[in-house]
Amino acid sequence: MKKICLIKISIILAMYLLFFCVFQHSAMASDVSVRTPIIFDDPALYVENDGEILIRYRDSLDVAKIEGLCEVEEDPENQLICCKVYKQTDIETCLTAFLQQKDKIEVIQPNYNFSLQSGTEYKESESEVLLSGNNVEKQWAIKNDGSFVSPGKYEQELHIKTVSGMDLEAPKAWELIDREGAQKHKVVVAVLDTGIDTGHEDLQNILWQNPGEKSDGIDNDGNGYADDLNGWDFAEGRSNISDSVGHGTRVAGIISARRNETGICGIAAYDEIRIMPLKVFNKKGETDTFSVIRAIQYAEKCGARICNCSWGYIRSSNPDDNDILLEQTIRQSGMLFVAASGNKGENNDDIHMIPANIESGNVLSVGSIEWDGSLSWFSNYGKTKVDLCAPGAAIISTCPSGYDYDWGTSMATPYVTGIAATMCMLRPALSNEQIRNLMLDESNLKKIEGLREYCVSGGIP
User: How, if at all, do strands 105-110 and 52-57 pair?
Assistant: First the structure.
């Protein structure tokens, strides 16, 4: 009897040891897989992106071996290093120096460079700047009574006729919210763009205010950015958020220009909804991954709820040539990202548009429609990759020194952003996925015949 018991005990102990060894090996393998760095080691990729290397590290890196070969900019709070190699012939040397420390590295990739012209910005013509007056009747996206006439020659040639009611029905929503007297909560919308015309008559009192900062040349709140009263210029590394391009000013106006007797009306023109202008594009309309990532992390740290991305660029869907760090930053963020699908008339199901194509519960991709409900001739589309559409053709909005028309999914995107901001203002507990689901719910959409062939929802908000 004792012998049988000893045999049973031996078997149990053997099974326990076997299980422990397998578990320990599995845990170690899991730990190794987690710590395996993602490395883009093809020098040609860096040559294409001005010789800039972007690294997210786990432990501090030794940069002594590359001194004199490149300019190093570090963001220690977010464990990022950007190296701008002076000579193309030194790229491989710099990469080798970092790869010798790969146990300290999480990701090493090119600092991808892109511009507003990389797929989302289209200008039909240099339309006349309207300096003053009430231009609300020209906002067919807000209310379309069938009388709108496009200033765009191309669309006139296409004989696109205005269809009454093809709009976002904003006045009805405003009236309902005002009549119900619903409680309104503060919402901050980060606009990653070209800055904003802070002196524009229709954009007064819409800017986010940094409560811990004042204009004295000192970083009062200790966040690493001195005098960031309303935002920051990540393209030039300064507090000046003025707009020399005009794109960001247009986007801000579509979201939140005040309802008054002047200019235009933003879709979310409430005092509770504030714009945080984060300038990521320089005066040439150019930016890079490092600038955008830092802007996103700044926005989230400063309390932004939604991030408007009226831009994007095509990146390979090949995992060996992708913007891993930007995609990781967006997926891991607690903000909702509303992104332009692009203006090349391409199928996003066949290309990888960043950030619009990022598959995540906190990203909404937006296409553009004309005033008859048809897909805009310039708009990218995708039955699985573009979530919904909004008016984006001949959109009049604020611009430096006045108002003018613009075309593009860049203009459609802030309409969706403004609607999402209004939802957060009324129901602050909504999660990103809940906002997405509500936006794409058929009962909340204006379904448009034929649009289902071009986007997931087949409609506009």
Answer: antiparallel
Q: Model confidence at 151, in pLDDT bands (50, 70, 90)?
A: confident
The mean pLDDT value of the chain amounts to 89
Q: Do residues 50 and 85 lie in contact, with contact meaning Cβ atoms separated by under 8 Å?
A: no
Question: In the chain, count of helices (H) and strands (E)?
Answer: 10, 20
Q: Which residues contact 158 (CB under 8 A, 6 or more apart)?
A: 377
User: Are the C-beta atoms of 370 and 388 separated by less than 8 Å?
Assistant: no
Residue range 9-58, pLDDT digits in tens: 444 434 443 443 433 433 333 333 446 889 999 999 999 999 999 999 99
Nearest to 251 by CA among 143, 138, 398, 145: 398
Q: Mind giving me the DSSP string for 103-152?
A: GGEEEEEE--EEETTTTT-B----PPPB-SSB-GGG-TTT---S------
Two tokens, residue 89: 């012939």
Looking at the predicted structure, is the pLDDT value of residue 7 above 50? no
- pLDDT at residue 5, rounded to an integer: 43
**Tokens linked to 146:** 């069938």
Q: List alpha helices for 231-390, DSSP H.
A: 247-256, 289-301, 324-332
pLDDT at 222 over 70: yes
How far is Cα 344 from Cα 202, in angstroms, rounded to an integer?
A: 31
Q: How far is CA 227 from CA 95, 158, 292, 437, in A?
A: 36, 49, 20, 38
Could you give the CA distance from residue 101 to residue 60 in angstroms, rounded to a whole number?
10
**Distance from C-alpha of 278 to C-alpha of 13, rounded to nearest angstrom:** 62
Quick check: 371 and 151 in contact, CB under 8 A? no
Residue 300 is encoded by which pair of tokens? 């989230």
Spatial contact of 249 and 196, defined as CB atoms under 8 Å apart: yes
Positions marked active-site:
193, 247, 410
